[in-house]
Amino acid sequence: MADPSVAVVVGANRGIGLGVVTEFLHRGWSVIATARRPDTATKLKSLAAANPGRLEIVGLDLTNTGQVDGFATALAARKLDAVLINGGTAGPDHMSASQATEAEIGSLMFTNAVAPIRLARGLAGLLREKTGVLAFTSSIMGSVALNTDGYHELYRASKAALNSLSRGLWTEVKGTGITLLNLHPGWVRTDMGGPSAPVSVEESARGLVGVIERERGKRHHAFLSFQGDELAW
Asked: What would the mean pLDDT of 53-67 be, rounded to a whole number?
């Protein structure tokens, strides 16, 4: 029997990340899941107990450059089939460029755009050639072409920056045979999305994992919704 495919899910302690871990496990994958504080990741621990030997929980704080830069080194002996970098922050409540401080902008951009790219650059070489998938949880709000209302402008800017930086990363990794994806998870009922969001965590996670599985071997860079639809950059 072939060994199960191995996925890394970054930012897996709750919400979409936790849902994606659950879905990968349901589909027979093994998962390396990260949390800022693994000791308090009770839901991940419960999943690990229910799936012995298939879920490993690792500490990783995207705001800690030492941890970000050392993460790939710690996994250097592993071969990965998929990576989803899901960590992020909503940013300041006011969401206004006119009110933002330098510290607020720096924190938002580093967490949502710079750190994910920095981490992805280290992990890209661990993915299987021809079938490996490197993915980011982006947002349709990061689309410049589809921005018709300007709402949440700072969050939009951070996701647009992630999309732009990932395009630059693609120029570095496209010769390796992997697939690079920027994924819109939908407006999801999480702490960030709020209780009125129309998409459940389970629905989003099923879609995201389904898209990752479908795109294996495509060896392109695409901006896709959790339903598999192509989005305008």
From this structure: 96
